[in-house]
Each structure stands twice: as C-alpha cells, then as structure tokens.
Design brief:
about 200 residues; seven-stranded mixed beta sheet; extended
C-alpha cells in the first residue's frame, strides 16, 4: 500500500511538473512568405526551449484557393436568402467575439516584422496610385497590430514602385511572434466556448 502511494505521488508530481512547464513555455513562431518567384512559398518555423525547432515549407497554390472560394458560394440546394442569413449570423458572431479576440491577440508578442512590396505597371500614374493605397493599408495594419498586440520592435515596411515595368505585385513578409502556450490555450478555449454558446442560442431560436 505504501509503495503504491509513493508511486502515485511520484506520477502526480511529474504530471504536475509537465503541466506547469507547458503552461509557462514560450513558443516562438517565425513566418516567412515570398512571391517574388514563380511560386508563392510560405515557410513556418516553430521554436521552443531555444534548442528545439520545427520547420515547414508550404507551397501555396493560388488556383486551389480560388477553387475553395467557389465552394463557398451558395449551391443549388440553398436559397440566396439562406446564404445571406448565414453570412449575417457569422458577422454578428465575429462582432460579439471582439472582446475575446482582443484578449487572445494580447497574448502575442511581435519580435520582428519586415514587409517589403514592389509594384510595377506600364502606367506610371496607376503605379503611383496603387503604391499610395498599399502604403495606407500597411500603415493601418501596423497600427492595429500595435494597439492589439505587444510590438517589441519597430516594424520595417517598404513599398517600391517600378515604373513602366509590368511586374505586377511582388511581396515578401518575415514575422517573428511569441506567446506563452498555457495562457494562449486558456484564452482560445474561452473564445471557443463563447462561440459555442452563441451557436447553441441561435439554434434554439
């Protein structure tokens, strides 16, 4: 009996220790995106405890994304009004969840952000207008991130116009974020519970 109690105590102590370690562990995620070449490439590196790193390279297929967007459109079995109602309900859920989303975003710290874009078109005036619009969008995104997340370094953003060159829009993004696993999971679970309650109330009506 004494041996069983000792073993149980040791096992519970180890489990508690593991739970505490996971809760306080800070996860670092580096995201790199580039479409300067023929393929859009997304590279994600996850690092924890400073010496364990997992890297994954994901080639993005634009055609596959377009096919998924087509699937989102209402099919023949759904009426247009049903489709609109679903979208309105989704929008209401998103607006109602804003406080929870803010709490979730506050868990993230941004250590590095580099966002470089080049825009080229044969029409110089159009190129200038597009560059100005992109600068505005980038400024708004950075401002929002600074308000809702912990911005630990000055972001580098750049928009390079390429006049009289029909190169389209080329962009690269490098971002490093970190978050404590336990607190983030706890906040995310609260968000999921809220969304589940919203869905349950809507289904009752």
């Amino acid at each position: 009996m004494g041996t069983l109690l000792t073993v149980s105590t040791i096992v519970l102590t180890i489990l508690l220790f593991i739970i505490v370690i996971i809760y306080i562990t800070r996860l670092y995620v580096t995201i790199f995106y580039d479409n300067h070449h023929q393929e859009n490439v997304l590279e994600i590196t996850i690092t924890f405890w400073k010496f364990i790193s997992i890297q994954k390279t994901i080639p993005l297929n634009i055609q596959a994304v377009n096919d998924e967007e087509k699937d989102i459109e209402p099919n023949m079995t759904d009426t247009f009004f049903q489709f609109v109602r679903k979208k309105i309900n989704s929008l209401r859920d998103l607006i109602a969840a804003v406080p929870y989303v803010r709490q979730l975003l506050k868990q993230f710290s941004i250590h590095k952000l580099k966002w470089d874009t080049s825009i080229g078109n044969q029409d110089a005036m159009l190129t200038g207008l597009i560059c100005g619009a992109v600068w505005g969008v980038k400024g708004s995104v950075i401002g929002l991130m600074g308000q809702q997340m912990n911005l630990l370094s000055t972001p580098y953003i750049n928009v390079t116009p390429q006049y009289n060159k029909n190169n389209g829009v080329k962009s690269s993004l490098e971002c490093m974020i970190s978050f404590k696993v336990g607190k983030t999971i706890h906040t995310f679970i609260r968000l999921l519970r809220f969304m589940k309650r919203r869905k349950s109330k809507r289904n009752k009506h």
